[in-house]
């Protein structure tokens, strides 16, 4: 396992980083196939340049911005985050990118903005999995505005010090380390500030199994399996899953007074 | 439609011409068939062990091994269920001879699947019972495997004699229930890609329907002969 040469930042985990090989060959990205190995095999069809991101909804200046321009707005930072998949496995990912909060603030949300909705690319030529209807395409995810403004919420453009590979959501993806991995929408083409809670893809596909919040919570089992433990990729045994994926000190306050069994 | 065609071919199989070739078949008893099926059926274990040792099972080898042994269980179970319809439709006798081997292989893979699940959870019986009792997905899978236990125990020729053919046949009808629950287990196990489990369920349903449809006519044909 590689250790970063730089000193760890306040949000970095000290845990052993998942290898580049494993982080890029074991992926959930249904637009590139439903098997874990499919996205790495099929990522060649995804063209991350040229790429634009549409910004609209409750913002002062709706606009369409080129990915390179958007990236140049912020200095790139490293973040070593745990990533816990709803299926019961986890990785430690060294992301490269910028905090989502900086982007949201720059977009100047109006007073009506309560949520941020993210939309992924819809293009069956680039994302052949969209020829089937496993899910409703395009993939949509969302956060409450205060979640999006939390310093842990991150937009990744790189991994392991390299440009983000297609199978990991090139050229731009969301990373919300205290939530299940499916919240981390890949290959984003649109960011919309909204007044109402967005209809997110998995919550629409199986509302009894995947909620809007999707905070990592060992106390709330998935209807079909326990969420109490997880397998860290690269390890044989299982380890205990931590509330909010180990980020409870940072984020639990966002959900004060909420019933997390109902708002799973 | 295809059933009609098959019935015709089954009927042609009973023409005197074909019948005359039957004693010759007995002379060549396909003695290699069952050993070949057994060895072929065990090959995936060797592949699995090889893949595990070379890292070819990917980043999450236990999950991959669980999935593969589960699929093998269901596939072999379906293959064993296909033997009798295949014999009835074609008039071939060899499918009946490999049925037991296929069924036992299916049971073996089911046990292996279960052992890998137990290993995955540190052989914790507490976790197992919690899963079996609280999660229908696990409940049906566990039940499907339990149903195969009496069938595996009575797979020998002696058991048929001991139980009597009728009782034995009735007991072994449980295999349809087990296969159905196995397909349901698979269906509930996938996150969203439900096509493969539906294909298995469809094939099992067709095989079951073939048995129901075939039962009447076969007996009628059998009595004048």
UniProtKB/TrEMBL annotation, chain A:
The keyword Cytoplasm does not apply. It catalyses: L-methionyl-[protein] + a quinone + H2O = L-methionyl-(S)-S-oxide-[protein] + a quinol; L-methionyl-[protein] + a quinone + H2O = L-methionyl-(R)-S-oxide-[protein] + a quinol. Its EC number is 1.8.5.-. Its cofactor is Mo-molybdopterin. Coiled coil: none annotated. Predicted to be exported by the Tat system. The position of the signal peptide cleavage has not been experimentally proven. Keywords: Metal-binding, Molybdenum, Oxidoreductase, Signal. Binds 1 Mo-molybdopterin (Mo-MPT) cofactor per subunit. It comes from the Bacteria. Residues 47-202 form the Oxidoreductase molybdopterin-binding domain. The keyword Aminoacyl-tRNA synthetase does not apply. Mo-molybdopterin binds at residues 27, 30-31, 85, 168, 173, 184-186. Heterodimer of a catalytic subunit (MsrP) and a heme-binding subunit (MsrQ). Part of the MsrPQ system that repairs oxidized cell envelope proteins containing methionine sulfoxide residues (Met-O), using respiratory chain electrons. Thus protects these proteins from oxidative-stress damage caused by reactive species of oxygen and chlorine. MsrPQ is essential for the maintenance of envelope integrity under bleach stress, rescuing a wide series of structurally unrelated cell envelope proteins from methionine oxidation. The catalytic subunit MsrP is non-stereospecific, being able to reduce both (R-) and (S-) diastereoisomers of methionine sulfoxide. Belongs to the MsrP family. This is Protein-methionine-sulfoxide reductase catalytic subunit MsrP. It comes from Deinococcus aerolatus. The chain holds residues 67 to 330 of 330 of the full protein.
TrEMBL record, chain B:
It is a multi-pass membrane protein. Keywords: Cell membrane, Electron transport, Flavoprotein, FMN, Heme, Iron, Membrane, Metal-binding, Transmembrane, Transmembrane helix, Transport. Its main location: membrane. It is found in: Cell membrane; Membrane. Residues 1-26 are annotated as: Disordered. Residues 1-12 have a biased composition (Polar residues). The chain crosses the membrane at residues 27-50, 70-89, 101-119, 139-159, 171-188, 194-213. Belongs to the MsrQ family. Part of the MsrPQ system that repairs oxidized cell envelope proteins containing methionine sulfoxide residues (Met-O), using respiratory chain electrons. Thus protects these proteins from oxidative-stress damage caused by reactive species of oxygen and chlorine. MsrPQ is essential for the maintenance of envelope integrity under bleach stress, rescuing a wide series of structurally unrelated cell envelope proteins from methionine oxidation. MsrQ provides electrons for reduction to the reductase catalytic subunit MsrP, using the quinone pool of the respiratory chain. Heterodimer of a catalytic subunit (MsrP) and a heme-binding subunit (MsrQ). This is Protein-methionine-sulfoxide reductase heme-binding subunit MsrQ. It comes from Deinococcus aerolatus. The gene is msrQ.
């Amino acid at each position: 396992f590689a250790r970063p040469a730089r000193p760890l930042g306040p949000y970095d985990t000290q845990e052993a980083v998942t290898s580049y090989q494993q982080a890029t060959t074991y992926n959930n990205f249904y637009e590139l196939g439903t098997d874990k190995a499919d996205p790495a095999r099929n990522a060649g069809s995804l063209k991350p340049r040229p790429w634009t991101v549409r910004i609209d909804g409750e913002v002062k200046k709706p606009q369409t911005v080129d990915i390179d321009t958007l990236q140049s707005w912020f200095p790139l930072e490293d973040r070593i985050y745990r990533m816990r998949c709803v299926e019961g496995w986890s990785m430690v990912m060294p992301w490269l990118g910028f905090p989502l909060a900086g982007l949201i603030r720059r977009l100047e949300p109006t007073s009506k903005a309560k949520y941020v909705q993210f939309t992924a690319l819809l293009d069956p030529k680039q994302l052949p999995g969209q020829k089937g209807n496993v899910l409703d395409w395009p993939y949509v995810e969302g956060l409450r505005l205060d979640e999006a403004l939390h310093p842990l919420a991150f937009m990744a453009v790189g991994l392991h010090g390299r440009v983000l590979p297609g199978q990991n959501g090139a050229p731009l993806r969301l990373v919300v380390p205290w939530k299940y991995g499916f919240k981390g929408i890949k290959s984003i083409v649109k960011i919309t500030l909204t007044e109402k809670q967005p209809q997110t893809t998995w919550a629409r596909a199986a509302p009894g199994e995947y909620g809007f919040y999707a905070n990592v919570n060992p106390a709330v089992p998935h209807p079909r399996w326990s969420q109490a433990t997880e397998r860290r990729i690269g390890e044989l045994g299982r380890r205990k899953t931590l509330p909010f994926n180990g980020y409870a000190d940072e984020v639990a306050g966002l959900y004060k007074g909420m019933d997390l069994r109902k708002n799973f | 439609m295809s059933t009609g065609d098959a019935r015709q071919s089954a009927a042609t199989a009973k023409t005197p011409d074909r019948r005359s070739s039957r004693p010759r078949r007995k002379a060549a008893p396909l003695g290699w068939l069952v050993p070949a099926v057994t060895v072929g059926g065990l090959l995936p274990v060797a592949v699995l062990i090889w893949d595990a040792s070379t890292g070819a099972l990917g980043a999450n080898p236990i999950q991959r091994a669980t999935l593969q042994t589960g699929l093998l269980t269901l596939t072999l179970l379906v293959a064993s269920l296909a033997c009798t319809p295949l014999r009835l439709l074609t008039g071939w006798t060899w499918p009946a001879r490999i049925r037991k081997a296929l069924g036992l292989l299916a049971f073996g893979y089911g046990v292996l699947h279960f052992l890998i699940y137990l290993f995955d959870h540190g052989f914790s019986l507490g976790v197992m019972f919690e899963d079996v009792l609280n999660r229908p997905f696990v409940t049906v899978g566990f039940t499907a495997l339990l149903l195969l236990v009496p069938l595996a125990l009575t797979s020998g020729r002696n058991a048929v004699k001991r139980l009597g053919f009728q009782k034995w046949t009735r007991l072994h009808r449980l295999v349809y229930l087990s296969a159905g629950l196995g397909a349901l287990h698979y269906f509930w196990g996938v996150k969203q890609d439900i096509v493969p489990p539906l294909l298995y369920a469809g094939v099992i349903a067709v095989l079951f329907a073939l048995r129901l449809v075939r039962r009447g006519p076969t007996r009628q044909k059998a009595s004048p002969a």
